[in-house]
Write a structure and sequence with these properties.
It is built from eleven helices and six strands. By secondary structure, it is an alpha/beta fold. It has one domain: Nucleotidyltransferase, domain 5, CATH 3.30.420.10. It has a six-stranded mixed sheet, sandwiched between helices.
Length: 268
């Protein structure tokens, strides 16, 4: 059964947004084409207020990393101990070795826009976190988010696709778990370059396992994932409510870039 794209949701990004001009989508199969694998390590888990401390942009062609841009980022603030415990990047090291935050944001935004204009998908795991963070920081620089700069996808999020294609599998679905399930060897977990490469490898492994994924167009997949993610959030929120837990932030259903919450919108 082929993946079916839901009706476009005006609140979500559309792959072929006329405001950003036409996109040249690579001929299928997409798995044989170019991929831009992307990951950030950050100061925390809030995509609206935290910032990157490292970045990785890997150009993958034919399953092989052909080009890579990897750098530490000086976040301009102290890195909390909890975040350091995850990725190992200290405040002192980031200040000493990292590029300026605004430089990093502009570099990532330019790479994403270039890929979008060429129809190259950005690949990763839980990319609504990374892409929203970049969008928020872009707006803080000059008021223009990713869409206003010319980015309109496509996106291939291995987590969103895995949840949809194997929805009843029990257990955690972190990147490490996905690597184990799909037979991918990850280097140093929570290192931006290793995580980006592993996410790309997981996605390509998924394409060999699921014919419907391999044969779907980037357009179908991009629009489909917005619906898959929204359905998962709805199901997860219902599960939380039956256990007396509070509702989720409404922006959790947004994909691939969350709309700004009221406070952040005012600040931008």
């Amino acid at each position: 059964m082929r993946l079916r794209a839901p009706k476009p949701n005006p609140a979500q990004l559309s792959l072929f947004d006329p405001s950003v001009g036409p996109l040249r989508v690579p001929s299928p199969p997409w798995a044989d084409g170019e991929l831009l694998c992307f990951d950030l390590e950050t100061t925390g888990v809030d995509r609206f207020s935290d910032v990157p401390v490292s970045l990785a942009l890997l150009c993958v062609r034919g399953g092989v990393v052909a080009e890579r841009t990897v750098s530490l980022v000086n976040p301009g603030r102290r890195i909390p101990l909890g975040a350091i415990a995850v990725h190992g990047i200290t405040t002192e090291r980031a200040r000493r070795e990292g590029m300026a935050l605004h430089t990093a944001v502009e570099l990532v935004a330019a790479a994403l826009v270039d890929a979008s204009r060429r129809g190259v998908p950005v690949v990763g795991v839980k990319l609504d976190y990374d892409l929203t963070m970049v969008d928020v920081l872009c707006r803080a620089i000059d008021g223009r988010g990713l869409p206003e700069r010319g980015w309109a996808g496509p996106v291939l999020d291995a987590l969103v696709l895995d949840r949809h294609l194997d929805r009843y599998r029990k257990g955690r679905r972190t990147l490490v778990d996905l690597c184990e399930h799909y037979g991918v060897t990850i280097g140093t977990a929570h290192s931006a370059d290793c995580d980006a490469a592993a996410a790309g490898a997981v996605l390509l492994s998924m394409a060999t396992r699921y014919t419907e994924l391999a044969e779907a167009s980037l357009h179908e997949l991009h629009l489909g994932q917005a619906g898959y993610h929204r359905a998962w959030v709805t199901s997860y929120e219902q599960w939380r409510l039956t256990r007396g837990l509070g509702p989720l932030d409404p922006t959790e259903a947004d994909w691939p870039v969350a709309r700004l919450r009221n406070a952040e919108a005012g600040a931008a």
